[in-house]
């Protein structure tokens, strides 16, 4: 596979230092793309009113593309970035979906604005992709991160429940498992609230879907490496042993929709149990190897034409990500690439006051109080150890 990747881009007239070339992200994984049966997703979405938060982001925009193809009754796109919303709105209109979509500039932290959007849309299916996801940035801006990832998620989930949505799919991350980053801890708190709401009522189903890094997404290493190679290097890798789980954007979204449709299909026989689906992302990829493959794909030699420089783990960063805990019982779902985990839950009456503490400290800009409140809810997260030796020593879980 690597030889094919190199040969595809090794013609002299295509290799020019200072000019980035387009590389198929799937080839970098050195595995074939998954074949995913989307008939169940079509049955879930056809004729339904669907709302997507974070619709201008990498995952949100791909959700919009795939959902639109399944003939929903209406598709509401929410984002707080004017430019991102403009881009996906324009793309959808040019693709012939102008009569299908409504695009709204909404900050999910503003409950009154969010309520208005939900009241107008009356969504039956809600896909919650909006979040702050960049680990170092959220680490340095914890109050802002908690507002979007915790308060924002709570607002979306509450609005969906109050307007009678059938299903809410929360898109989480492998960084929510044994989180060493503040971002991961906030996503775990949102998972806890989705689970608690699912168990506490019988009208709106809440499903959480976890997956890892998406090749080519905003903030991912592949666009960074491409820019660094185009400049002639160096390519920066934080640690020689660091590895991550990767999927293509299309794969990730197809599996998200498949997980959602699995839950819908089983709705009549399965009680509300706060289920968390884990996407099987194959074997983890060493970032150093990924960097070498990208350099070679440009017809260059790592360490000769392009230097690889190690910069050290960043705050909140793990050497290895985990997609489930040792205590989780993974159950096969019958769908290729989708597993069902059983993480611990907190009942809603116990969760609500702790959740309120997190939100109050975030609103007040009180980072020390926020750290304590987050640690109280997610004890495995230690604000003082983010990116430290404890994170480095954790073994890889499969």
Automatic annotation (TrEMBL):
Pfam families according to UniProt: Polysacc_synt_2 (PF02719)
Protein family (similarity comment): Belongs to the polysaccharide synthase family.
Protein's organism: Amphiplicatus metriothermophilus
Domain spans labelled Polysaccharide biosynthesis protein CapD-like: 50-338
Name listed for the protein in its UniProt record: Polysaccharide biosynthesis protein
Coiled-coil intervals: none
PANTHER family in UniProt: POLYSACCHARIDE BIOSYNTHESIS PROTEIN EPSC-RELATED (PTHR43318:SF1), UDP-N-ACETYLGLUCOSAMINE 4,6-DEHYDRATASE (PTHR43318)
Superkingdom field: Bacteria
């Amino acid at each position: 596979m690597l030889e094919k990747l190199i040969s595809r881009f090794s013609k002299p007239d295509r290799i020019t230092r200072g000019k980035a070339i387009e590389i198929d992200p799937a080839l970098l994984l050195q595995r074939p793309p998954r074949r995913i049966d989307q008939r169940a997703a079509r049955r879930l979405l056809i004729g339904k009113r669907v709302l997507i938060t974070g619709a201008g982001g990498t995952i949100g925009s791909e959700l919009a593309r795939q959902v639109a193809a399944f003939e929903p009754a209406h598709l509401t796109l929410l984002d707080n970035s004017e430019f991102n919303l403009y881009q996906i709105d324009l793309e959808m209109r040019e693709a012939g979906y102008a009569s299908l979509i409504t695009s709204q500039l909404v900050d999910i932290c503003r409950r009154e604005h969010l309520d208005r959007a939900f009241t107008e849309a009356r969504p039956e299916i809600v896909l919650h992709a909006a979040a702050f996801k960049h680990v170092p940035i959220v680490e340095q801006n914890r109050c802002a991160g908690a507002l979007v990832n915790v308060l924002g998620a709570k607002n979306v989930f509450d609005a969906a429940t109050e307007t009678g949505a059938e299903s809410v799919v929360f898109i989480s991350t492998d960084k929510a498992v044994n989180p060493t980053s503040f971002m991961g801890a906030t996503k775990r708190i949102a998972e806890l609230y989705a689970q608690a709401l699912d168990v506490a009522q019988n009208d709106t189903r809440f499903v959480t879907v976890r997956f890892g890094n998406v090749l080519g997404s905003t903030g991912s290493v592949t666009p960074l490496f491409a820019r660094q190679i185009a400049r002639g290097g160096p390519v920066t890798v934080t640690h020689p042993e660091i590895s991550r789980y990767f999927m293509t954007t299309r794969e990730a979204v197809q599996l998200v929709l498949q997980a959602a449709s699995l839950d819908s299909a089983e709705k009549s026989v399965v009680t509300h149990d706060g289920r968390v689906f884990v996407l099987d992302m194959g074997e983890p990829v060493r970032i150093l190897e990924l960097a070498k493959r990208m350099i070679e794909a440009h017809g260059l030699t790592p360490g000769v034409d392009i230097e690889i420089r190690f910069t050290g783990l960043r705050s909140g960063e793990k050497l290895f990500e985990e997609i489930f805990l040792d205590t989780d019982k993974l159950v096969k779902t019958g769908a290729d690439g989708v597993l069902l985990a059983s993480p611990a839950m907190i009942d809603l009456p116990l969760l609500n006051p702790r959740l309120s503490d997190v939100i109050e400290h975030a609103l007040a800009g009180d980072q020390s109080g926020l750290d304590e409140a987050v640690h109280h809810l997610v004890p495995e997260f230690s604000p003082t150890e983010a990116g430290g030796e404890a994170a480095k020593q954790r073994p890889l879980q499969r």
